[in-house]
Design brief:
This protein has 211 residues and is mainly alpha-helical. Helices cover 79% and strands 0% of the residues.
């Protein structure tokens, strides 16, 4: 209650205790709020620290991966550019060498045809050589027969000459003793072959096998 002279109203003890109690409750409320806010601030700081432990390495990894990705993109761009240059050079070289390659292929085809004709001619020559070899074998067989016949004739001549020698040697020996230059000394018969050549066998006259 206000006094009429403008001074502060006089409070009773109960009113003062009530105000003190009200202020004390407000102070307790504010202290509780302060502790609550301090606890929340501490929790927020812990959350911030945990987030910092996650965010900062993530940011570092992101920057590293970004730099590596940029390096890969730059390398890929450089390689693609080099590949384009090489493909262009290869296309130019192929366009320049295609006529030469086509000419070489034509020459190779002609050489293969010539080789085919040569092989055909060689085949015909081999057939002719085979026929000539057969004729040569027949001629060799005929020559072998003629050689055997000549051997028989030679053996017969040898036998006849041996017989002739045996028949005329004694009369000529007697005449030799009668000749003046003989000196009357009987020198004996001239030594000849011990006997006629053996009869002809299959093969050569000396009995060996025919080659």
């Amino acid at each position: 209650m206000k006094s009429d002279d403008g001074k502060k109203p006089h409070l009773s003890r109960e009113e003062r205790l009530g105000k003190v109690d009200e202020l004390y409750k407000k102070w307790q409320f504010l202290e509780g709020r302060e502790r609550t806010l301090a606890h929340e601030i501490k929790q927020e700081e812990q959350r911030s620290k945990r987030l910092a432990l996650l965010v900062y390495p993530s940011l570092v990894a992101f920057f590293i991966l970004s730099a590596y990705g940029f390096f890969l993109i730059a390398s890929l761009t450089r390689d693609v550019n080099r590949l384009a240059v090489e493909v262009t050079a290869m296309t130019v070289a192929i366009e320049r060498d295609i006529p030469l390659i086509a000419n070489n292929m034509v020459q190779m085809s002609e050489l293969m045809m010539h080789m085919n004709r040569s092989m055909h001619a060689m085949n015909q020559s081999m057939e002719a050589m085979k026929n000539d070899t057969g004729s040569m074998a027949q001629s060799t067989h005929s020559m072998q027969s003629d050689t055997r016949q000549m051997s028989r004739v030679t053996a017969a001549i040898h036998q006849d000459l041996w017989s002739l020698n045996q028949n005329v040697s004694k009369p000529f020996n007697m005449m030799n003793t009668m000749m003046p230059w003989g000196g009357g000394v009987n020198q004996g018969p001239f030594p000849g072959s011990p006997g006629p050549m053996p009869p002809f066998t299959q093969g050569f006259p000396w009995g060996g096998p025919m080659p």
